[in-house]
Amino acid sequence: MLHGAMVATNQLPVDPGRRLSFHPMAGRRSPTLVKLIAEFNRIGDSHPEATVRTVARAALPGSVSRVFASGTKDTLVRLLPTLDIDALAGLRDEDHFRARFERALKSVAEAILTLNPVSVNPRIHPGYDWGHGAKVLSIFVRDLVLFSRHFSWEEAKRIEPWLYCPVDGIVMDRLRELGVDPGVRYIKAMTQEGFWSIQERLGEAAAVTNLPRVWFDDVWSVPRYGASLRLIARDRRPG
Fold first, then answer.
1. Which of 40, 176, 177, 187 is most buried per CB count within 10 Å?
2. Strand, helix or coil at 158?
3. Rounded to 10 degrees, what is the CA torsion of 97, 100, 104, 105?
4. How confident is the model at residue 24 (pLDDT cuts 50, 70, 90)?
5. Which residues form the domain of 189?
6. Do 123 and 187 touch, CB atoms closer than 8 A?
7. Cα(75)–Cα(90) distance, rounded to whole angstroms?
């Protein structure tokens, strides 16, 4: 299954201007109803921030966070919503996205290292940053863009091709099966150069198929046989 993937719902985006004053019972509000209305208004006003916090928690399931020392998951859940992810909507191109990703990763890596120095948790070193940190950040950004309603449909479609595939053992195993050397055996040994090399190889093939690079993470759930993984060029235009 996809690490931390959130399930999109059919719920329409919240309109902050739409309040419960139009409810048939609006003229006969009990004190309890008044309190509930006030609470819904408060929730509606803070919904965008709540969405980011929810995605941050979902991006760190046990399969991702269990390698870290105690307290790391809680620290990252608090940190991720502070990374100014809203700025992604205004980025012009992938180069700007990459620069912002690298800056955000520095913050994530510092938080990980603080609680996971090599003397405490050697099993995530030396790739605590470009291995484990990049995996956490890639999942968080992917889930916020693709599996929530935080960004508009137009913004999400523009950002989607820039997203990076979360790299872990299963992704690297599949790359080897396809003849691509990921450069390292485990993500604990991942380097900056290795991370970008993988993303560039995936991006090259994804561009030919007209699919986003981040979809390669579907190797977690897509069967490894039949037409589902054939490397074929696809025309995804409507009709």
1. 187
2. helix
3. 60
4. low
5. 48-229
6. no
7. 27
Q: How many CB atoms sit inside 10 A of residue 235's CB?
A: 7
Other CB atoms closer than 10 Å to residue 158's CB: what's the count?
17
Total residue count of the chain as it appears in this document: 239
pTM of the prediction? 0.79
- Model confidence over 74-101: pLDDT tens digits? 999 999 999 999 999 999 999 999 999 9
Sign of the dihedral through C-alpha 212, 52, 62, 71? positive
Give the burial class of 27: count Cβ atoms within 10 A of its Cβ; 0-12 exposed, 13-18 middle, 19 or more buried. exposed
> What one-letter code names the amino acid at 25?
M
Nearest-5° angle of CA 67, CA 73, CA 76? Answer: 120
Number of domains in the chain: 1
Query: Does the residue 186 lie in any domain?
Result: yes
Q: How far is residue 239's CA from residue 220's CA, in Å, rounded to a whole number?
A: 29
168-211 residue pLDDT tens: 999 999 999 999 999 999 999 999 999 999 999 999 999 999 99
Other beta carbons within 10 Å of 17: 6
Residue 29 lies in a domain: no
Question: Is 35 among the domain residues?
Answer: no
| Residue of 126, 203, 132, 204 whose CA lies nearest to 164 | 203
